[in-house]
Write the structure tokens for this entry.
Amino acid sequence: MAEIHSLAYAGFGVSDLDKWQWLATDIIGMQVAHRDEQGLTLRMDEYAQRFFLEKNPIDDILVAGWQFRSEQELESYVRELREKEVPVEVLSREMLQRRKVEKAYSVEDPNGFTHEFFFGHSEAGLNDAFRSKVLKGSFVTGDLGIGHLLPFAKNGPQTVSFYQDVLKLRVSDYIREEVQPGIVVDATFFHTATGRHHSIATAQAPSPKVLNHFMVQVQNMDDVGLAYDRCIKAGIPIILELGHHPNDRTFSFYAQTPSGFNFEMGWGGVVIDDRHWEVKAFNKMSDWGHKRNIVL
């Protein structure tokens, strides 16, 4: 059965490339791969690019890029989508060159961004190892992908059905928390074949942004604390202070990007073995910490 391997890249439309470059390199610890007047691309590891930022006043998510192990798996997956009468587009040669992949297709998410499916990524040259200005260690990527995305859902049941039944992502667990009297956040978390606890999650909420946050994971716990300190020193708004999630068991904090949505920087986290995994429902987002400082 053809199945998504990992979340390999993400693209955002941003209005201020200079502020984003500073955040990505001097605060989070990524490396610029390329920049021109239209945008910039960012590295986290040996891949030629992991995030791309396009000059665009939308200040929101544009693309989630999903990787397959082989061309055969990709083609089998696309055939299944078409059998379900999902509109599938072929990426042009120009777009493949921009994404630095061999072959790719795309479908539209119910919430206004694009999912791209590909195989055949490009890597940086042998003499161009990833270098971070600020990290003590490195990012956790590889088979687990870049981290995760949490876009808001305009229609929760429709979005959950799309991720589970159309994209064929696996449900990891649920969190249903009453954040204010009568207001319940109902979030569903999904993982791919390689088992990062979630590569995408969603919850229905009124929001001017589609994307609530993206998450990157680091190998060294100190890098979470050091990034937190850099945010404080730079005056970057901290949305959720240092804390711990009960479902994916990640230690993290959340801060605001120049586009108004957030980033999460975390350490730890569960890698799911589906042979032994039990889907559960939790009643709180955090079992300690993550004090909210700003209500968006």
